[in-house]
Specification:
With about 120 residues, the protein is mainly α. Helix content is about 75%, strand content about 0%. It has four helices and no strands.
């Protein structure tokens, strides 16, 4: 039998919590931010011509949603995982040796899964 100490157990719980935070954060990023852009496009689509009306108000609305959305999601997930939310950010942190290879792999899988779930909802 392998004995797991309480400190090892706490380490694994924190690791799994971080992976879950990345999955949840990527899910919210796709659902809220990309969803807002898609809904704005569909609401501005002209049924007669099929042309999208890109007014300044459209661009400002999407930019505000993305800015507040990403800021809020990073704030929610930063304590558990660092709030990477993006495999490119995780890869950059790996290259800078701020996260390990196993953490990069797990974060990337969690981020892709969260993105797929967010897109599917």
């Amino acid at each position: 039998l392998v004995r797991v100490t309480s400190s090892e157990s706490a380490h694994w719980k924190a690791f799994l919590r971080a992976a879950g935070a990345e999955l949840f954060g990527s899910f919210l990023l796709i659902l809220v931010c990309v969803g807002s852009a898609n809904s704005r496009i569909l609401s501005n689509l002209s049924p007669a011509t099929g042309i999208i009306d890109f007014t300044p108000l459209y661009c400002i609305g999407v930019a505000i949603c993305f800015g507040l959305g990403i800021g809020g999601i990073v704030h929610l997930t930063s304590k558990a995982s660092g709030g990477n939310l993006n495999p490119a950010v995780s890869f950059a942190l790996f290259l800078d040796r701020q996260i390990s290879l196993i953490r990069l792999i797990v974060y990337t899988i969690a981020q892709f899964l969260g993105g797929f779930i967010g897109a599917g909802v």
